[in-house]
Amino acid sequence: MKIGLVLPSGPGYTETFFRSKIEGLQKSGHQVILFCTNNPENFNDCPVYLLPERSPSKIKQVFRMWLEYLKLLPHFKTIKHYIALEREDGTTWSRIFKRIYNNAPMFKYELDWLHFGFGTLVMDCQNVAAASKTKMAVSFRGFDIGVYPIKHPHCYQKLWDKVSKIHVISDDIAQLVHDQGFKGQVPLVKITPAINTSYFLAPEQKTESDLVRIVTVGRLHWKKGLDYTLQALSILKKEGILFEYTIIGAGFEEEALKFAVYQLGLKDQVIFKGKLDPKDVKKELLKSHIYVQYSVQEGFCNAVLEAQAMGLLCIVSDAEGLAENILDGQTGWVVPKRQPDLLASKIKDTIGLSKTKKQQIRDAAIIRVQQQFNIEKQQLEFIEFYKENKTI
Question: Which InterPro entries does the UniProt entry name for this protein (predicted)?
Answer without folding.
Answer: Glyco_trans_1, Glycosyltransferase_grp1
